Amino acid sequence: MNILFVILWATDLIMFVFAVEHTVSVGVGGMVLFASEVCTCLHFNFLRLIEFLVWYTNGQRLKHHAQISAVNIRSTSCWS
User: Fold this and answer.
1) Is the pLDDT of residue 1 over 80?
2) Domains in the chain: how many in total?
């Protein structure tokens, strides 16, 4: 997971350097494209983070619920 963040950070840094160079040479048009791309990348990352947090909290809730309402197998056996 950390490697993915390093790759994304490096990609964003390279894109930023390219956008600044393009803005200096041409004008503001390149910065609009860069901002749109960064927003798309951040949106994707935030969705993954929210998905993970929902998955984790749901798992913790289910684990807690299973510990509270766990049935003792010995007390429900037909043979005792």
Assistant:
1) no
2) 1
